[in-house]
User: What shape does this take?
Amino acid sequence: MVDAAPQPKVKVSVKDLAIQYGGKAALSGVNLEIREHEIFGIIGPAGSGKTSFLRVLNRMDEMTTGMTFTGTVAIDGRDVRAWRNLYALRSRIGVVFPLPVGLPLSIYDNVALSPRLRGIRSASDLDEIVERCLRRAALWDEVKDRLQSLGSLLSGGQQQRLTIARALSQEPELLLLDEFSIAVDPVTTMKIEDVLKELRSEMTIVLVTNLVQQARRLADRTAFFLSGAFVEVGKTEDLFTGPVTDPRTREYVEGRFG
Amino acid sequence: MAPTPPDDHASDRRNLDWYVDRGMRWIVTVGGVSAIVFIIGIFAFVTREGFPFLFDGFEAGEFFGSPAWRPTSEPNPTYGALALIAGTASVTGLAVLSAVPFSLGAAIYIAEFATGRTREVLKVLVELLAAIPSVVWGFIGLSMMNPLIIAIFDVPVGLNVLNAGLILGLMAAPIMTTIAEDALKAVPDAYREAGEAMGATRWQVTMRVVLPAAKNGLMAAVLLGVGRGFGETMAVLMASGHSINLPTSPFDSVRALTATIAAELGETAVGSEHYQALFTLGMLLFAVTFSINLAADLFVRGVRRG
Assistant: This one.
C-alpha cells in the first residue's frame, strides 16, 4: 500500500530553520515538510517556538523588530525570502491569531475587506462571499441580522469565528491557526473543528495547538517542539501510540510533563 | 478552652499614611475644583462687563449684519462686528485648509511609517514647533511672508488673509499633528498586524482600518486646531493687516475679533459703551471656542465608548 500511494505534493518545505529575536535563539533545527491538503499539527509547551514558526511562514518576521531567521522555508518550492512583494505572499496565507482580532469595522466589512483588496466590487459577489465565509466559520446564524454592527463588539468566541471567516475570505492556499480555541467555548470549538476537516480538501492547514487532543482529533501529521528545539515530526497517531524517536514526545502527549 | 484571639483593634489607628491620604485628597480636590471656579469666574467677569451693552447700545442686526465697526465715531458710534467675524472666520478657515493635510500627513507618517529614531526625533521636533511663541510667528508673517507674498502675487500689501491664514496654519499644525498622532497610536497594533497578515499593504491598512478606527480622535485634533486658530491674537494681529474689511479674496487685509480686543481695550474708558462692546466680542469668542472644545471633547469620548 505504501508503494502504491502517489507521493503527496509538498506544500511547505522547511530546512534547517532557526529563528532569533535580537540574536537570541527562539527556535532551531527545524526540518519538516507540510503536505498539500493535510492538517499539520504543531504541539509543544508555551515558549517552544510554535508561534514564531508560523510567523516565518508568511514573513511576519518582517513586521517584528529584531526577529530574524536562517535556513530555508519554501512554499510550493519557492523560498519565502525570494518574494519581492510580501503582500502578495501574505494574501495567499490566512492567519488566525490566538486572541481574536475583530477589526474595528462592521462584521460585513471585516469579511469583505480582503475580497475588496483583491478588487472585487460587485455587491452581489461580496454578499455571496461574506455569507459563505460566515457560514463556514459557524457564525452566520448569530450575526446575519446585524452584519452592519461593529465586529470588535462581538464576544470573544464570536470574534474568533469572525477572524476565521476573514481568513477564509482570502481564499487562502495555506491556513495558519495559532491556538484558535483559546477564546472559544468547547461546543463552538467542535463546530470549527468540523469545518477545518472539510476545508482540508481545499487548502493546507497548519494548526498550532496547546491541546494535544485537538491535534489528535484533527492533524494528519504532527510536529513536536520543545523549548525552542524541533524534536520530531510524524503521523499524529504514531506520536500517541506508535513508535516515537524521542521519549519526551510520548511523555508530553500523555501529559506527563509540560 | 480556645485561646483568646489577639486584640485586633490595636492595629486600628489613624497613622501617618491615613492623614497623608486625607490631606492629599483635599489638595487635589481644590486643584480640580479651581478649574471650575476659574472658568465660571472668567465667564462671569466677561459677561458682567459686556452685559450692559447688550441691553443698551446693542442691536443684533447691526452687530451681526453690519461691517461698520466705528466705536470711536462721534456722535454716532456703530458696532457692526460682521467684518471682524468674517476676518476671524476667513483666516481660521484658510489656516485649517492649509494645516489639515500637512498635519494628517505628518501624523500618519510618524504613527504608521516612521520607525525607531526617526519617529522619536520627529515627535520632539513637532512638539518644539508647537512651543514657538505666537509673537515669533507674527514676526515671521510680518517680515518674511509679507515681502514674499508681494513678490510672488504682485499685490500691493502682503499682510492679508493669505498671510495670516498660513501663519495660523503653521501654528495649528503641530498641535493637530500631536493630537492626531495620539489618536492613531491609540489604535491597537493587533489591528495593523491582522491587516498586514492578510496581505493588505501598510497603506491599505492605514486607510481602511486605522483611519476609520481613529476618526473621532482625528476629528478632535482638527477641532482643537480650529479652536487654536480662533483664539490666536498676536500673530493674527501682526500678519492680517488689521484693517476692517469684508474679505472677497485672500489678498484682502482683515481684522480679527481677538486682535480688535487686544488693540482697542487699552484705549477705552472702563465702563464706556466701547469698552462694553469689546467685552461683547469677548463673549462671542468665548462662546465659539467653548463650543469647539466641547465638540472636540465629545468626539474623543466617542472614541472611548468605541
